[in-house]
Design goal:
Radius of gyration: 16 Å
Number of helices: 6
Strand order of the largest sheet: 2-3-1-4
Structural class: alpha/beta
Distance between the termini: 32 Å
Length: 136
């Protein structure tokens, strides 16, 4: 049962995902960050940034996202730092014409919940309670 956590950069998505992982939940980190870390490790950051606004890069993001999502145990809760929807949305943002078979994947009803996380002042997870307070 995948639950997607979305919103803008630096709002706390990865923090929430990491805290949920510590609680024992299945999680998927942000795929863009995984690919960035891979490029950094392979000393390919310049190529990474050059390619990041291309269709080929969007396809690579989608492929990695789907592979990670398909590896989940479907009978357990899973929390995702972004989703296939983001791959298409950011492609649109960069005026990249996405092929129909890619947009069709993002349109499927694959997520139990899509949670838009507003910027949190602090986040605390106890044994059974998740608390987030919004900045005002």
């Amino acid at each position: 049962m995948p639950i997607c956590i979305n919103w803008r950069s630096r709002c706390g998505k990865t923090t929430v995902i990491n805290l949920l992982k510590k609680q024992g939940y299945q999680t998927i980190p942000e795929v863009l960050t995984l690919l960035f870390d891979e490029a950094k490790q392979n000393n390919c950051l310049e190529e990474f940034w050059f390619a990041s606004n291309s269709l080929a890069f969007r396809m690579k993001l989608m492929e990695k996202q789907l592979a990670l999502e398909n590896s989940l145990d479907k009978n357990k809760f899973a929390f995702l730092d972004r989703s296939t929807i983001d791959v298409v949305a950011f492609g649109n943002y960069y005026n990249i014409k996405m092929p129909h078979y890619i947009t069709d994947v993002a349109k499927k009803d694959m997520y139990a919940i899509i949670f838009f996380l507003d910027h949190c002042q602090f986040i605390c997870i106890t044994n059974t309670t998740f608390v987030a307070r919004k900045n005002r």
